[in-house]
């Protein structure tokens, strides 16, 4: 049975890395000693080592060992043998490029569908969807495809932002962008606000955190799902 | 000699489509009767016809006829024979996909380098750069390449936004995104604020409008160029 946490962000304003979701992670990783960390999204371009150190620090007090996927000679084998995987945020184009380059997309998908524990934040959540086409990131590298893990029957828009009232900026709002996506694609999009996450247990998907999520379906008005409710697509 | 206007946006807050730049356009298109409009970027997913009507309306009082490129049976021939081209904003991924699909990237580049008047706004400005990799748009469609017209020796970031002071949102600022781009690419990036445009006459590139532009070079601190100054890369 698949067991996944899809978090909008790693960090909420004014708190430490992963702190807001610590309790959930503690129970999620209860029977796990070691977590393989996928650092490929490299936020701000930091190194794989530095990024892994950040993740390791957050999990240290939970007595979990975090090992960077980049330190394995054979990353495919590392995923095949992992007990749990955490993919951190950063740039989704870079993350997806590296997953394809290392031949990891299929093996990661297969293993998570068969019960490998998976935690994603931001870009790491984006890739749990059908495609990465609702990322907010800049296309700093050209990936071989926009197709992602397809662990859930929708796409994620992490860091979902409501329109800023009174803004004079003429760039598109997040909602406008997602509506543009739906002119050309049918995949449902979940706008996950910061501090929200989806907990997936098999076919049950529950919205957790304090805020509602915004659901976008092609050709329909967007609507809100309250925290604590199941997501039914 | 190439003659290009690269505008951050079509519209500034509280004014009509292209109104803020009307005077410049009047002199730029002085000897032109007809402008071929490239509506491929389809902002908000509107139709090619509707989008062309918006552009036509703005140019009507300047006594210019605007013809949508989508109405020509042979778009390559239309570009070969055009006196002037205007590419409107919208989604850059869609625009670039359509330009490649219709075999227009090379002919448009060749003709603009040889003097075809070119006006771009937003996505239409993005494609004047070396690549579309500093767009703000959502990847709603997978283009065959991120390479664009390369009419200027840098990339454009249109609708450039300064960090919002006191923001509690954890998504990346525009500057952070451009810095990430520079971890993997060397191309200089010009952050063009709304209401700014570049006027290109041969090798001379002047920043116009009221605001400074922000210049990003890989491995260097970003800096500002004041309005009215030449851009020298």
Give an account of the 3D structure.
Chains A, B: InterPro entries: Class_I_gatase-like, Peptidase_S51. Chains A, B: One of its GO terms (cellular component) is cytoplasm. The structure is a homodimer of 233-residue chains. Chain A has a single domain (3-160, 191-210), classed as Class I glutamine amidotransferase (GATase) domain (Rossmann fold), CATH 3.40.50. Chain A is 26% helix and 20% strand. Chain A contains seven helices and eleven strands. The first copy, chain A, has helices at residues 22-28, 48-60, 75-81, 92-101, 105-113, 123-126, 174-184, and strands at 3-7, 34-38, 65-68, 84-87, 117-121, 155-157, 189-191, 197-201, 204-208, 213-216, 223-225. In chain A, the strands form two sheets. In chain A, strands 3-2-4-5-1-8-9 form a seven-stranded mixed sheet. The longest helix of chain A has 13 residues, at 48-60. Chain A binds chain B through residues 9, 11-14, 42-45, 90-91, 94, 132-142, 145-146, 159, 161, 168-172, 176-185, 194, and chain B through 9-14, 42-45, 90-91, 94, 132-142, 145-146, 159, 161, 168-172, 176-185, 194.
């Amino acid at each position: 049975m698949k067991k996944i946490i899809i978090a909008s962000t790693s960090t909420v304003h004014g708190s430490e890395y992963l702190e807001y979701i610590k309790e959930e992670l503690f129970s999620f990783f209860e029977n796990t000693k070691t977590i393989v960390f996928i650092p490929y999204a490299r936020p701000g371009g930091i190194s794989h080592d530095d990024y892994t150190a950040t993740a390791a620090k957050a999990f240290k007090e939970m007595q979990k060992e975090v090992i960077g996927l980049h330190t394995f000679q054979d990353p495919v084998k590392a995923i095949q043998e992992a007990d749990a995987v955490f993919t951190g945020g950063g740039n989704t184009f870079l993350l997806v490029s590296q997953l394809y380059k290392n031949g990891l997309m299929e093996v990661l998908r297969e293993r998570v569908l068969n019960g490998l524990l998976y935690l994603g934040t931001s870009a790491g959540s984006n890739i749990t969807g059908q495609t990465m086409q609702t990322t907010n990131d800049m296309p700093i590298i050209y990936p071989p495809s926009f197709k992602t893990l397809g662990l859930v029957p929708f796409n994620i828009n992490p860091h979902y932002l409501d329109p800023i009232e009174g803004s004079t900026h003429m760039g598109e709002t997040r909602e406008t962008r997602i509506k543009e996506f739906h002119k050309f694609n049918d995949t449902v999009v979940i706008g996950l606000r910061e501090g929200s996450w989806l907990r997936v247990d098999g076919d049950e998907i529950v919205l957790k955190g304090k805020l509602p999520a915004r659901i976008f379906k092609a050709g329909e008005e967007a609507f809100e799902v309250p925290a604590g409710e199941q997501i039914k697509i």
